[in-house]
Amino acid sequence: MLDWFYDTSILITLPLFVGGFVVVSCLIVVALRRVVLRLVTDTKEWDRALAHVIGTFGVFFGILLALVAVSVYENFAYTRQVTIEEAGRVGALYRATTGLPDELGDQMRQVLDEYMHTVIEVDFPDQASGILPGVSDAQVDEFERLLHTIEADTRSDQAQFEQALATFDDFIESRRARIDATALALPPLFWLVIWVGAAVNAVLIAFIHVTNPRLHILMAGMLALFIGLVIFVTADMDHPYAGEISIGPGAYERVLEQIIDARE
């Protein structure tokens, strides 16, 4: 079910998700209207009590949705940042190899070129499917092996070597963060609470004593439309590498085009 949601175009998932959410909310109103109209004898007392309940519930449910949305967006922004940092550090490593002897430098640049293609063509599709990527490990290990074969005879060479090591360490840190972000997602318990809250909200709206049925359904539909949109966007961003709102290999493609391919 989740794979279908993230793999399908938003032109299909958005109307189905939000439209279904609105339809279900309106059906709940239709199903409970007769019960409410039959049981309520004192409308003033009923409206006063219901206003307190809806007000209290609205505060807690609104805070929950806001906190969840902010948390998901922070995860998304963090993932985007680490991908940009990793791509930039690959570019810095590529530039650092230009001062090395031709044979060793050529090998290291070739490894970085292969790494970038692997990340773009293999890692990101795997991460979009929720799979932790591991194919590019071979290029990382090979580059580290070549890096430690550098012989720094002079103080200048030693300084360049230490700088390259520091950049490589930063690259490894960014790469690990990018891979770990594959598993970023809200705990299932959060989604359970959100769906229960959405159902309670629909029932409370149905409990409102409204004489005009069309107006009642319109009120419920408009509120359900907004809540459905918030939940849809939150769900689509919950997995940073999957869905319509996702992080792609654009930063790596730009580094590959502007730095690596431009120097070949």
TrEMBL record:
InterPro entries: DUF4239 (IPR025333). Keywords: Membrane, Transmembrane, Transmembrane helix. The chain crosses the membrane at residues 12-32, 53-73, 189-208, 215-235. It comes from the Bacteria. Coiled coil: none annotated. This is DUF4239 domain-containing protein. It comes from Agromyces albus.
